[in-house]
Amino acid sequence: MVASLPNKIGSFYPPKRILMGPGPSNIHPRTLTALSQPVIGYFDAAFVRMMDELKSLLRYAFQTQNALTFPVSGPGSVGMESGFVNLVAPGDKVIVCRNGVFGGRMIENVERCRGIPVVVEDAWGEPCDPNKLEDALKQNPDVRLVAFVHAETSTGCETDAKAITDVAHRYGAIVLVDAVTSLGGIPVMTDECGIDAIYSASQKCLSCVPGLSPVSFSDRVVEHIQNRKDKVQSWFMDINLILNYWGNTVRTYHHTAPINSLFALHESLLLLQEEGIENAWARHRQHYQALAAGFEALGLRFLVKEANRLPQMSAILVPEGIDEALVRQELVAEYGLEIGAGLGPLAGKVWRFGLMGYTAQESHVMTCLRALDTILSRMGHPVRSGEAESAAHRAYAAWHTARAEKTA
Ligand SMILES: *Cc1c(COP(=O)(O)O)cnc(C)c1O
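Above are the sequence and the pyridoxal-5'-phosphate SMILES. Below is the predicted complex in structure-token form.
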């Protein structure tokens, strides 16, 4: 007897959404078109040419010359794990700077690699403090690796990557940087900062399909991994083996590359290159400023102080007496607009508004403010109707004026 399904199942067509959460972000139509092209083999000469272009485009995104720059097959979490399994041998002491959820995951990774984590704590919503790191390095001169999150998605806070990297290098440690939310949204200056190893993800400011994790390792780090006495504990993530597929010389089978997703990544990186990476950073800031002006008009406050805020991710404090989850539900039900909830100690206390990649556009900012205006006033939050959108309009106008003056 063949088992049958209890219900009739039809094709799945997802609803239309404005994705203003912590990722995934909305995807450009060109990227979706690239994704839907017929699959080809992973040794096809055309595919191999595309792989080489992908590596160049990723070097541009990361602002690096590192030869080993490629997309790991797997989400950002696999990029993170690739960094740790390749760089941490059992017994290694590793400093993790933690100021949010993703720093916590780094600690977990160190432990699972049988490393010894030394944690430098900062408050959620504050950047990682280079002075605290320096104290920890003085107390632990045997530390060889420092890891931190450049853009903490759980709080919307940026850490000064150059300052942290400089301190680590002064004490002879290399750095591993989480640039999952920063890449494409704010400057990620891998070579200028001297970052040794870095990873990101496809679905945040690169606006590609989820499931790919661009990484970049310096030659020095690659050499270090190649000289490891022990075997990297993960077969799949061992850079020594992956180099045979993604490296420059040989191409031997390692695993079946996620071919269509890589078509999509190629197109989304091409879009970034066409726009110009500096223009992409400026666009994220422009729409953030309009959104922030609207939040202010609505009487909403940020978790993070202005100097440390990420334009692509804003954590907003839920006002007294407002049902945090209900607001999110109504945003989806009535406006098809998704935002993020707070994580860990911030659960129930903040909303997270993302403006990542293709999502960062004026129509989304205006829809979001109009929706909040309606929903919050209905819930009894004091709102002067229309003020948020006006404030955003004024911010856009100021932006265009400043731009015109600059180019005049
Ligand atoms: C989203 C995110 C990750 C994890 O990426 P996935 O693609 O969800 O696995 C890691 N670090 C940061 C900072 C993130 O925002």
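The mean pLDDT is 97.
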